[in-house]
Amino acid sequence: SSTAAGGATGAPTDASRADFCRAFTELATLEPHQASDRLRAVGTPRGIGPTARDGFVLLVTHLFLLPGPAHADPTDLAGDLSGDDRSDVTAFVAYARSQCLVLPSM
To answer: Which residues does 77 contact at the CB level (< 8 Å), separation at least 6?
Structure first.
């Protein structure tokens, strides 16, 4: 079962690149709560910058709070945020793209 907002801060910080990329590319096929759970379980790889990690935490929390059954597209979700939160999620998406060389299918 999902934990409330903030649960993503404890997500692993040592995910393998393959597991991270698999979770990221699966986002578009999952409902928001499933995507939140999946990302939180996998976490992020070592070496992710603090801004991108903050974006990861924000994205996971935002996905958790969204109603289903819409699919989770992190690019669209960043548009729902404002200011620093949007910048952080955008940094996370850019990081994930650079690591995985692919965007979730839209």
So the answer is: 59, 62, 63, 66, 89
* Amino acid found at 38: R
- Pull the structure tokens for residue 1: 């079962």
The pTM (predicted TM-score) of the whole model is: 0.80
Q: Is residue 27 over pLDDT 90?
A: no
**Dihedral angle sign, alpha carbons of residues 52, 55, 60, 66:** negative
Joined together, the tokens standing for residue 15 give: 């995910």
How confident is the prediction for the chain on average, in pLDDT?
Answer: 82
* CB burial of residue 89 (10 Å; 0-12, 13-18, 19+): buried
pLDDT 10s digits, 45-57: 999 999 999 999 9
Q: Give Cα 91 to chain centroid, integer Å.
A: 11
- Taking alpha carbons only, the member of 41, 44, 50, 49 closest to residue 17 is 44
Rounded distance, CA 30 to CA 53, Å? 21
